[in-house]
Amino acid sequence: MLSTLLQIDSTTAAAALASAAPQQVEQSYSLISMASKGGALMIVLLILSILAIYIFGQKWWMIHQASKIDKNFMKDIRDYIHEGKIKSAIELCSKYDSPIARLVEKGIERIGRPLSDIQTAVENTGNAEVARLERGLPYLATISGGAPMIGFLGTVLGMVQAFFNMANAGNNIDITLLSSGIYTAMITTVGGLIVGLVAYFGYNYLTAQVSDLVFKMESTTIDFMDLLHEPAESEE
Fold first, then answer.
1. pLDDT of 15-35, one tens digit each?
2. Rg of the chain's alpha carbons, rounded to an integer?
3. How far is CA 100 from CA 64, 73, 92, 131, in A?
4. pTM value > 0.85
5. Rounded Cα gap, residues 141 and 159, in angstroms
6. Is the torsion defined by CA of 78, 82, 86, 91 positive or negative?
7. Phi and psi dihedrals of 111, rounded to 5?
8. Alpha-carbon distance 236 to 230, whole Å?
């Protein structure tokens, strides 16, 4: 009987110690919960991220479509022009929604005029096409530079709020007042950096794609102008 009472007492004491011991609570966080603590500036960063993704997707699709053209395109144009089938050459150009095809089409429509006029018309068309391809890219560049600054602004505002709360706490200063404020403040910096990096790499990628397409347009312009010289050279 005595041993049973001792066992009960020891079990009760162990349970009491276990309940008295501080329990460590596991804290988990998600991106959504973190973003929700960033304040109103996170909404601004969200809008900028959506705008950056939209611009990138739209320009990528435009450049991708503009680059799609048959590799034998210029060969077919050369054959049509040599055979005097100007209308067929224009119809071939109209089949492609590409700045390269529109350059050639503009030049074919000017055949019969001085070569300088043809080259000017082709170059003006090329400048208009390049401007159309680059439209929207400055906004992407602005987001890549502005988003981190907005995130940094949120961090500064959060730190000011944290120290303000500590100042109002008086003698009841708690470290959680500062740590929670810093935690909330740093979230906007993380969000701004993520949006800025995505926009930055997207801008550089699209700029490189536009440069490649411009190079193809310039090469096609040279080939087309050489093509217009071929009949005169063959007659000599």
1. 444 444 444 444 455 556 555
2. 34
3. 13, 10, 12, 14
4. no
5. 28
6. negative
7. -60, 135
8. 10
**Which tokens is 234 given?**
């063959």
Report the C-alpha gap between 203 and 129 in whole angstroms.
Answer: 18
Q: And the tokens for 178?
A: 């500062």
Number of helices and strands (H, E) in the chain? 9, 0
Euclidean distance between CA atoms 224 and 68, whole angstroms = 18
What would the two tokens of residue 194 be?
């993520």
Residue 111 bridge partners (DSSP): 113
Closest CA to 66 of 3, 126, 1: 126
The residue to which tokens 């095809």 are assigned = 101
Tokens of 19: 């309940």
Return the ∠ at Cα 192 (arms to 201 and 132), rounded to 5°.
40
Q: How many residues does the chain have?
A: 236
Model pLDDT for residues 165-222, shown as the tens digit of each residue = 777 766 666 666 666 667 777 888 888 999 999 999 999 999 999 999 889 888 888 8
231 contacts 111 by C-beta, under 8 angstroms: no
Q: Give helix 73-82 / helix 175-235 axis angle, nearest 10°.
A: 30
